[in-house]
Design a protein that fits this description.
alpha+beta, 8 strands, single chain, three-stranded antiparallel β-sheet, 4 domains
């Protein structure tokens, strides 16, 4: 009987000894109570507690937690906006007061999540209610900053901190979405028409400028060509005059009639006409009287020039 009592006593002592040690997992903090009253907290690792007196009330995770939200809000112009969001939160810090708030503010995790979600939804709805439907899509960052500013103090009193709020999807009623698509399409068509008009204007302007420059260049080239042609004709006449003067002088020194020069020029002219007429018909008086009359006219012109020079 004594042996049995000893064995039972030894067993009880072993149970009490083993129950005096408790292991807290990494990323969690254990809350210890004594007869239902908060006593202290235990950090990750192996910890000692008074057996049968201190009890583990709860184990609180200090890791980041996330929750997805889906809710509706109404803008100031009575448009329904549907949000899909992801909420990232965590315990504010590992301080004792923070852990006490986390452990005892709410009855359980379900009530905490309900309060957290409703608070976030209420803050976003209150902000969206002051904005117009057309402005909501471009205010994504402003909405997030507004929610963080509104919730930081409330969540801190609960022992939590809002790490991030992501608005993954913002949609409207189907009618509004269709009208928004039509507005975007019409704006794109308007922009395309404006761009096309500007391109056409630029093309026509550049074409007109190019045509004007081409006309200027052609006119300048024609002016220079005409000037060169005039200079060439003048030089030709000057050389002809010099040649005729030299030939007349040589014939006078040789006691020959200078009318031969005129006759030669006349025949050369007829030859040039026939070679370069290209099928055109040229009528010339080829009779003896016609040649005589032509020679007399040429000689009279030569005589007038000679008398004019002597005068």
């Amino acid at each position: 009987m004594a042996n049995i009592f000893s064995l039972v006593l030894l067993f009880l002592l072993l149970v009490i000894a083993f129950s005096s040690f408790v292991t807290v997992q990494q990323g969690t903090i254990a809350v210890v109570t004594v007869f239902g009253k908060y006593r202290r907290i235990l950090f990750p690792g192996l910890n000692f507690k008074l057996p049968l007196i201190e009890q583990i009330y709860s184990r609180i995770s200090i890791q980041n937690r996330s929750v997805e939200l889906e809710f509706q809000a109404v803008t100031v112009d009575q448009a329904n906006v549907y949000f899909k969001a992801m909420l990232l939160y965590s315990v504010f810090d590992q301080g004792e007061e923070t852990i006490k708030n986390v452990a005892f503010k709410f009855v359980d995790e379900k009530n905490l999540m309900q309060a957290l979600i409703r608070t976030v939804e209420g803050s976003i709805r209150a902000y969206v209610a002051t904005k117009r439907q057309a402005d909501v899509l471009i205010l994504r960052r402003d909405i997030v900053e507004h929610v963080k500013e509104q919730l930081d103090q409330i969540l801190e009193s609960w022992g939590y901190h809002l790490q991030d709020l992501q608005l993954n999807d913002i949609t409207f009623d189907e009618v509004i979405m269709r009208s928004m698509s039509q507005v975007v399409a019409s704006n794109n068509l308007k922009a395309a028409a404006e761009n096309e008009g500007q391109a056409l204007l630029i093309t026509k302007t550049k074409g007109a400028e190019a045509e004007g420059n081409a006309i200027k260049i052609a006119a300048e080239a024609e002016r220079q060509a005409a000037q060169l042609r005039g200079q060439g004709i003048a030089l030709f006449r000057e050389e002809v005059a010099k040649g005729m003067t030299q030939a007349a002088k040589e014939m006078q020194e040789a006691n020959m009639d200078t009318s031969v020069i005129l006759f030669t020029m006349w025949t050369e002219s007829i030859k040039h006409f026939s070679e370069n007429s290209k099928g055109n018909v040229i009528f010339l008086d080829g009779s003896t009287d016609g040649m005589k009359r032509t020679m007399q006219e040429l000689m009279s012109m030569n005589l007038m020039n000679t008398e004019g020079k002597k005068a």
